[in-house]
Automatic annotation (TrEMBL):
<dbReference type="InterPro" id="IPR041756">
    <property type="entry name" value="M28_SGAP-like"/>
</dbReference>
<feature type="domain" description="Peptidase M28">
    <location>
        <begin position="104"/>
        <end position="309"/>
    </location>
</feature>
<keyword id="KW-0732">Signal</keyword>
<keyword id="KW-0479">Metal-binding</keyword>
<keyword id="KW-0378">Hydrolase</keyword>
<dbReference type="InterPro" id="IPR007484">
    <property type="entry name" value="Peptidase_M28"/>
</dbReference>
<comment type="similarity">
    <text>Belongs to the peptidase M28 family. M28A subfamily.</text>
</comment>
<feature type="signal peptide">
    <location>
        <begin position="1"/>
        <end position="27"/>
    </location>
</feature>
<dbReference type="Pfam" id="PF04389">
    <property type="entry name" value="Peptidase_M28"/>
</dbReference>
<protein>
    <submittedName>
        <fullName>M28 family metallopeptidase</fullName>
    </submittedName>
</protein>
<keyword id="KW-0645">Protease</keyword>
<keyword id="KW-0862">Zinc</keyword>
<dbReference type="InterPro" id="IPR045175">
    <property type="entry name" value="M28_fam"/>
</dbReference>
Length: 315
């Protein structure tokens, strides 16, 4: 159909307007900050190197890394040195429990919205009867390697990232309770997520996800679903690790766990492999909780899941 002169003028104006609008949209898209890349693969070798160091520290200090003992402080100093070298701002928080001095280590990555803080943490102390390599060197090493991956990637999250290693968990969650109790109300409200990792390399592992916060739970469950690994809701350690003080203070919490002294069922063995009727970790709170007491596949999967959640929840 042939257009009249006036109609052609109107059409030309419409085209020009559309081009301006389209150009503006392209310009806006070009000026928008890029979405951060997905989390990197966390090298299992790096996590296991941290476990070997924690084992060496325990061996040199009476066979343990317990609260108030030299092995704990040496473990904390080792991790702090790694974080300082990687560009973190670190701080030591001191407290007293059971007549002994304890320490928390807090590490902040520069940048991100200080009004939205994503924290990942683990307890660093062992029981006095063993080196505590699964409980909880595994969580501590995975959180450390994730923090170092943030530095290697020079990750610039929208939210502020904070990592923590708690003292005196084994004597009643003392370190994490101390930290939370000293947060001002405003500071508590600024923590948008606290992720807890306690025993993530059990030798007869299950794959358990905390169900405390739906959004955090979904992040972990979708990650494992992508691997084809079924998960279950964590019940054995519910309320018994360092997420509990945060949850009580109203902070959204989540985390991962591979099982402790509870026995794996036949249905769980069919689903995950391993041995039915045997504890997820036969060396729980024992002297045999050494570097030999780790399932590499579980440690690798869970370490990658730690990083995935840190990246996804801090975007």
């Amino acid at each position: 159909m042939k257009l009249s002169v006036s109609a052609r003028a109107v059409a030309a104006g419409a085209v020009a307007t559309a081009m301006l609008l389209t150009g503006g949209a392209v310009a806006d898209a070009a000026s928008a900050p890029p979405r951060p890349a997905a989390a990197p693969d966390i090298p299992l070798a790096g996590v296991k190197a941290h476990l070997s160091q924690l084992q060496s520290i325990a061996t040199a200090n009476g066979g343990n890394r317990a609260h108030g003992r030299p092995g704990y402080k040496a473990s904390l100093d080792h991790i702090r040195a790694k974080l300082d070298a990687a560009g973190y701002t670190t701080a030591i928080q001191q407290f007293t429990a059971s007549g002994r001095t304890g320490y928390n280590l807090i590490a902040d990555w520069p940048g991100g919205d200080a009004n939205q803080v994503v924290m990942a943490g683990s307890h660093l102390d062992s029981v006095s009867g063993g080196p505590g390599i699964n409980d909880n060197g595994s969580g501590s090493a995975a959180v450390l390697e994730t923090a170092l991956a943030v530095s290697r990637a020079q990750y610039k999250p929208a939210k502020h990232l904070r990592f923590a290693w708690w003292g005196a968990e084994e004597v009643g969650l003392v370190g994490s309770r101390h930290y939370v109790s000293r947060l001002a109300t405003g500071d508590r409200s600024r923590i948008s997520a606290y992720l807890n990792f306690d025993m993530i390399g059990s030798p007869n592992p299950g794959y358990f996800v905390y169900d405390d916060d739906p959004a955090i739970e979904k992040t972990f469950k979708e990650y494992f679903a992508g691997l084809g690994v079924p998960t279950e809701i964590e019940t054995e350690g519910d309320g018994r690790s360092d997420h509990a003080p945060f949850k009580s203070a109203g902070v959204p919490v989540g985390g991962l766990f591979t099982g402790a002294s509870r026995a794996k069922t036949a249905a769980q063995a069919a689903k995950w492999g391993g041995t039915a009727g045997r504890a997820f970790d036969r060396c729980y709170h024992s002297s045999c909780d050494t570097t030999a007491n780790i399932d590499d596949t579980a440690l690798d999967r869970n370490s990658d899941a730690v990083a995935h959640a840190v990246w996804e929840l801090s975007r």
